[in-house]
Amino acid sequence: MAKVILLSTFPLPYSKIGSWTTMYRNYLESGNHKIDHIVCEEPHQRIPGVAYTIVKDNFWIKVRRKFSYYRIGYMDALKRILQKDEKYVIQLVDNFSMADKIHEVLTEMGIRQNCFIQLFYHGYDPFLPAQNGTGDFYANVDGLVLLTNDSYKTHLNYYTVFPIGVSVLYNGIDTKRFRKVDASEKNQIRERLGIPHKKVFLWCSQDRPKKGLDLILDAWNRIHQKFPDTFLMVVGTDRKREIPNGKFFGRIPNDDLPQYYQAADSYLFPTLCHEGFGLSLVEALNCGCHCIASKQGGVPEVLQYGKLGRLIQNPNYVNEWEQAMTDFITGRDIPVSLDKPVYTLEEWVDSMNAIIEVAKKRLS
Fold first, then answer.
1. How far apart are CA 212 and CA 292, in angstroms?
2. Partner of 177 at 20 to 30 A CA spacing, among 1, 56, 264, 356?
């Protein structure tokens, strides 16, 4: 039976904020994963039952980087694992250059036919340009895993030559942690966080221009004046400033995030780029938040094209965010009440394992 090797440019498990690293951590800790070996830098702790090969970062590696591939340490580590009489499924995430280099290494070792390279892409739009041999690259990778069907359609329409098997794997979350709480527990969380019992909005992301925080702050300057019984929580930024009827909470560890969603009534996702998925949307949705999000990238599919939340057609227009927030405050928009959790970790684990099994059968 083929063995599964994951090459990660982050140590796993990874304690900081990151969508795919969080999912892999959940997957590896689920007790139902199919990863045999991880190649990465030394993590703060190792997953029991998984073999590790640690990528070295010594003086000799640094010298070789200047004259060779900049992640040469990963190729060295991979070569230490591979045996010519074994078969392997090799996974990597969002690293096209490494996929190309792995293909070269396997070919040089004479074992390319014994390996299935599985590239997980967490963007939305095609990463590689349509010219300059892109078709050759995709012919060198055995499986491409995307986050949404809409992303696949975008790839299919963009490339005239697209010779690769494609799977779709929706992100999944631990819905035992990200869950809706009753009114009493919600009020207890708000008291603990120092939030008044008002209509509460939440923005939570890394603070980069494409994440749209400044748009929300502009809209908030109008909202809080019209509706003083409202409150805005901002999570994920180091900005230090005062906002009326609101608070900056700074950067929060992943393990502490659920309570912020559970304290909120509405989650704001003003992305100004084509997000691959929007994992925080799913976290907020399962915690009972009314989601207001940009109609960009994979977001519409995640929110079932408006069935699970409000989509902003023109996300660069501040007035559209103001209107959507107003509609929620006044009751014109009714929050979705989920019958059951959506985009669960259990579904993600089952889908991941099915994708791995397909790859293994290709090698049998």
1. 13
2. 356
